[in-house]
Amino acid sequence: MNVSLHEPYALSAEQIEFFRSHGYIKLKDVLSPELLDTYGREISQEVRRLNTMHLPLEERNTYSRAFLQVINIWTHSEVVKQFVFSKRLARIAAELLGCDGVRLYHDQALYKEPSGGFTPWHVDQVYWPLSSEKTVTAWIPLQETPLEMGALCFAAHSHHYEEHRNLTISDESERIIQEAMETGNYEYVEEPFDLGEVSFHYGYTYHRAGPNCSAAPREVMTVIYMDKETKVASSHECESDWISFCDSIPDGELCAGPLNPVLYENTAS
Ligand SMILES: O=C(O)CCC(=O)C(=O)O
Questions:
Q1: Global pTM?
Q2: By alpha-carbon position, which residue is closest to atom 9 of ligand 1?
Q3: How many angstroms separate the alpha carbon of residue 67 from the centre of ligand 1?
Q4: 123 C-alpha to center of ligand 1: Å?
Q5: Which pLDDT value is given to residue 269?
Q6: What are the chain's domains?
Q7: Per-residue model confidence as pLDDT tens digits over 148-188
Q8: Whole-number Å distance between alpha carbons of 143 and 218
Q9: How many angstroms separate the alpha carbon of residue 268 from the centre of ligand 1?
Q10: Could you report the per-residue pLDDT of 74-130, keeping only the tens digit for each?
Q11: What is the 3-state secondary structure (H, E, C) of 67-113?
Q12: What pLDDT is stored for residue 261 in this prediction?
């Protein structure tokens, strides 16, 4: 497969319907091994350079044992910017969400170190001061990712329910959502990722990942997209994200600051 970062990926109507009903989708052959190798090297270099977590794993809390987290790498590296600005990825996001275009919310690398811990059940959007539920995270593993490395798992259909949306990522969110999994109408989806496979999940889909039981780091890049018409909302409840990613734009105004460029727009519509 020899694809570029910008050529369209052929999404079927069934795949779009699957995403909207299940709250997530895993798509094979989105990126080629060559692209992942080239851009993965630069992303990893930037993660090493920008990472600020240097405590040994045993001295960290559950959140920081789960992964090294480096955000908005595109603002530090022109090469990573090319990757994050991939029209292929952004167009998939827009088509899944059913909107005319998407903006960047932010990117983040999530590197689960060897012996790194599990990622607790959570939803992403609890942190986001945004007016719309048309948000989606692309989870892009930079290597083949078997379950024992900490592949991302989903609670299918969970975006249809409002319970537990207020839980931030913690031991408590893991416990409460795990209990809900055992009694609720969710389907646990736990599958490995092939090289080149990318998943997309809504901001309100419950997801988690197991620990990294392998000897190699689980290297993942993510890109978070929102409908380009999304406005800022409830900023006082999400102040940290509001300041860091929304340029402190007031509630009710378009979330269109310098960190939120339009990454794909359907010019035909
Ligand atoms: O990579 C992980 O372990 C968690 C990923 C996640 O929570 C996300 O991408 O929203």
A1: 0.97
A2: 139
A3: 9
A4: 9
A5: 58
A6: 13-263 (2.60.120.620)
A7: 999 999 999 999 999 999 999 999 999 999 999 998 878 99
A8: 8
A9: 33
A10: 999 999 999 999 999 999 999 999 999 999 999 999 999 999 999 999 999 999 999
A11: CEEEECHHHCCHHHHHHHCCHHHHHHHHHHHCCCEEEEEEEEEEEEC
A12: 98
Q: Where does 136-232 have alpha helices with state H? A: 171-183
What is the token pair recorded at 74?
Answer: 């595109």
Going across the sheet that includes 187-189, the strands are 119-122, 207-209, 152-156, 187-189
- Can you tell me which atom of ligand 1 is nearest the CA of 124? 10
Residue 232 corresponds to which amino acid? V
**Residue 166 amino acid letter:** N
Q: Evaluate if residue 267 carries a pLDDT over 90.
A: no
Instruction: Tell me the CA–centroid distance for residue 208 and ligand 1, in Å.
Output: 7
Q: Is the CB of 209 under 6 A from ligand 1?
A: yes
Burial level of 59, CB count in 10 A (0-12/13-18/19+)? exposed
d(CA 27, CA 84): 18
Pocket lining: 137 vs ligand 1, CB cutoff 6 Å: yes
Which residue matches tokens 């910008």?
A: 6
